[in-house]
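README, section 4: Worked example with a bound small molecule

Sections 1 through 3 covered apo chains. Here we extend the same pipeline to holo records, where the ligand is supplied as SMILES alongside the sequence. The molecule in this example is nicotinamide-adenine-dinucleotide. Nothing else about the input changes; the structure line simply encodes the ligand pose together with the chain.
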Amino acid sequence: MGNGKGAVAHVGVNVVDPAFWSGKRVLLTGHTGFKGAWMALWLQSLGADVVGFSLGAQSQPSLYELARVGEGLQDLTGDVRDHEAVVAAVRSAAPEIVIHMAAQALVRRSFSAPRETYETNVMGTVNVLDAVRLVGGVSAVVNVTSDKCYENREWEWGYRENEPVGGYDPYSSSKGCAELVTAAYTRSFFSDPDGTRVSSARAGNVIGGGDWGEDRLVPDLMRAAITGTPARVRNPNSIRPWQHVLNPVSGYLVLAQSLAQSAEYVGAWNFGPPESDARSAGWLVERVAELWPGELAWTHDDGPHPHEARYLKLDSSKARGRLGWRPPVDLDAALRATVAWYAALGQGAGGSVTPTGSPAAAPGGNGRGSATDVRALTVAQIESLQHAPSPS
Ligand SMILES: NC(=O)c1ccc[n+]([C@@H]2O[C@H](COP(=O)([O-])OP(=O)(O)OC[C@H]3O[C@@H](n4cnc5c(N)ncnc54)[C@H](O)[C@@H]3O)[C@@H](O)[C@H]2O)c1
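The generated complex, written as structure tokens:
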């Protein structure tokens, strides 16, 4: 495996290191999703040899398709619920690093499809870890779960990695279960410090260009902005810890690098934003409306909604202290970049594709412009934002 294993390190590799990733064989599940597409593009720009394993893109349009993410990787279409398919993917990819992101990732959908959510998020994790166990040769596994994996005590203090997992709704509970699976597999099959090293990574709500997820605030706002209809905002007073998608993605990369260096990084890690980036949904809507280069009206949608847990704050002291990780993008830079991404897409749409997927020309667009190079736009944001000054 030749990754400098055995070296004792007290602070992990705190920046994303192109020398580490160049030529590295990486198996990424969930590469057709929102976070997965950003991760895949970043890995490609670092020179990694990426194999993606997922179902197809989950939205129309999708960042994966618009940014032609599949051009720079080996794309395996498959279902993480299918143990044989996952084993075959690990065998053919022969990865040094595995990053597991594939999931049914929507809380609301978990109420209408609870079995699918558990099957994907729990048995999918079992199947990925089991395939790694059976095939062997993997240096490090990063399993992406969520801040929602914690038992939400509805308190104001930050949750630390040694706090109990739980979850009120099927999605959150499935992520708590995925944590338990990861801990059991680590203890039972991956305890050799010179063998495969496994960690789980817990991060919260992310924002960024290219998200078309249902029932997510920023995609809802961008859809409304482009169609010129008022956005319906469910809980304007809810405080949420917003962060740019590149923040946790940088954490996953730094964690994988650190795991490859030393077994002392095995375990669970929180990757959350600083407290100053926890803001109400209403504040975020107002700020996005200021930044959007056109009209963006919104109304309060006070209809009945499924239970939404109160703000769950992550304490990321461990990642800061032990990995030396800092979130590279603060909230204002995150919002500017996100709005700029959708606005650029709208302007270049030329009537062929808009951020809503509808043929209508977007505000600010001239309806004749040449198509935006979404891949170049996204890679340029990765290049500039990873070096953004870090909030203290
Ligand atoms: N987006 C967020 O705000 C957020 C917050 C916390 C944690 N997460 C976690 O990060 C990861 C990525 O989230 P995302 O926002 O990119 O989600 P997404 O819905 O955009 O993408 C999900 C990905 O998983 C794949 N997938 C779904 N079911 C599958 C199956 N049965 N077999 C194979 N692939 C399957 C999809 O094809 C897609 O590639 C997930 O594990 C999610 O739970 C996301």
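What to look for in the output: Residues 18-205+245-270 form a domain with the Rossmann fold fold (CATH 3.40.50.720). The longest strand covers residues 49-54.

Section 5 describes how to batch many such records.
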